[in-house]
Amino acid sequence: MDLEANLDMKIPRVTGKLREMTAAYQRDPTVIVERTYRAISQSDAAYAKLPLGTKSDFMVSIRFSAVLWCNTILTGEYPSDEDMEPFRKVGRRRVHQGVPLASLLRAYRLGSKELWTIYLEFGAEHPDVQNELLFELSPYLLDHFDEMARAIAVAYMEEQYEQSRWKEALRYELCNLVFDASSDVSEFNRVSETIGIDPTIGRVALAFNSNVLDTFPSRIEKELDRMLVVVARTAKVNAADLVRVMYRGRLIVWIPCIRGDSILASDRRMGELATQVIANVAEFKQVGVGMMGQGPSGWSCSVDEAIKAMDVGERMGAGDNVYRYSDIALNEGARRSDNVLRYLESLIERLSHEPDLLRTLECYLEQFQKRKQTAQVLGIHPNTLNYRLERIEEIAGGNLGDPAWLAKLYVAIGLRKGSL
User: Fold this and answer.
1) Which helix (H) or strand (E) holds 372?
2) Which among 37, 137, 279, 317 would be 20 to 30 A from 340, CA to CA?
3) Three-state SS for 180?
């Protein structure tokens, strides 16, 4: 604590019975510690739920604070910077123990109240100390604990800021590992665990098109953090469990899957989540949804899938704002094999010379093979539709009643539409 902050602070030096009482508590502050601990743990859930090891540290910090108070009013001197360092360390530790700053300050306020109650009880039993207690000690007690709260809050926020910068650096390193084809899985796991992310849980990448990049550069990070909180709230996870990065002009957010979920269940859940997020965040225009992946290669693959789904969806003019890779997975799988691609293209190659037949096939598939509905959409007589479908079977060499052949036509038509 700097001296300038204490020039106007009058520090009393207790006398008589108050001095005897304070000296006794300096030697053994057990009563103060137990009453303070009980008052705080009963009033704040953050402290009541602390693990055993942290509770022990909490008790030690109360003891230190009580002795520090006793020393101050016994000597009439404010604690030195060296005396204050262990106190500041308490604030730093609370950051890593997950205690919110509001709970930390509330605990200190409750502690000061409990200490003052102990002194008031002593004053009630000894009327001769009441004047010194009320007019000398009480004003300083308020100043003392106000300064202590300020010191511990500053230490807490400084540590929180450093922790935030440290975690951001590790998250940046994690993203580099994801997009590095030669990345080491063990290193990916180490960095993930260091920042509190379970690398054994699969994740799905969501790729967002957003107009947030049109804002001032100094505000982009703050806006992205705000939107990430909305995504986390919608997904019912902690924001710290999400990882985000700007990649190829899109905001990428990796969402943790539920352990044990199948890839089908995960895809359905992420599709619903993406729809909700688009509705809740006005800055998000479209979102691509990848498939579940694990490890650096799995995370990277999910990003590629999410971006691909968005690109294909926008190119085909689907009119939606949520594009799932699972909707184009068969088509994209076919594209990766030249032989399969040539085979599927050959299925409808001859039909392309008769536009009416090709359009009829597309509509027939879009209407889920319902002939009456297809005829109505095309505006033709049912007999005309039957004739055209027979011609399609004859030219393409297959049977529309064969599910396997029908599935090939679905993929072939999808590939053709995607290439236009």
Assistant:
1) helix 371-378
2) 317
3) coil
Q: Which tokens belong to 33?
A: 């510690």
Q: Are 99 and 47 in contact (CB under 8 A)?
A: yes
Integer CA distances (angstroms), 36 to 39, 42, 117, 134, 202, in order: 5, 10, 10, 21, 45
Residue-wise pLDDT for 135-145, tens only, equals 999 999 989 99
DSSP 261: -
Short-list 247, 263, 362, CA closest to 306: 247
pLDDT, tens digit, 9 for 90 and up, residues 370-392: 888 888 888 889 899 888 888 88
C-alpha distance from residue 374 to each of 321, 352, 406 (Å): 27, 19, 16
List the Cα angle 341/178/338 in 5-degree steps: 10
Angle at 135 between CA 133 and CA 140, to 5 degrees: 80
For residue 7, what pLDDT is reported?
42
3-state secondary structure of 291: coil
Cβ atoms of residues 58 and 47 within 8 Å = yes
Cα angle at 338 between 336 and 340, to 5 degrees? 85
Q: Is 2 helix (H, G, I), strand (E, B) or coil?
A: coil
State how far Cα 37 lies from the chain centre.
Answer: 32
Contact between residue 414 and residue 313 where contact means Cβ atoms under 8 Å apart: no
Domains 199-327 and 334-419 fall in the same CATH topology: no
Domain-wise residue ranges, the chain: 3-164, 199-327, 334-419
| CATH number given to 3-164 | 1.10.490
- Any idea which architecture 334-419 has in CATH? Orthogonal Bundle (1.10)
Please, what is the Cα angle at 60 between 96 and 125, to 5 degrees?
A: 135
C-alpha–C-alpha distance, residues 292 and 336, integer Å: 20
pLDDT band at 196 (very low <50, low <70, confident <90, very high): confident
pLDDT class of 353 with cuts at 50, 70, 90: confident
Q: Is the pLDDT of residue 410 over 90?
A: no
User: Rounded to 5 degrees, what are φ and ψ at 136?
Assistant: -105, -50
| Dist CA 185 CA 374 (whole Å) | 52
Count Cβ atoms within 10 A of the Cβ of residue 365 and give its class: 0-12 exposed, 13-18 middle, 19 or more buried.
middle
Sign of CA dihedral 196, 200, 201, 203: positive
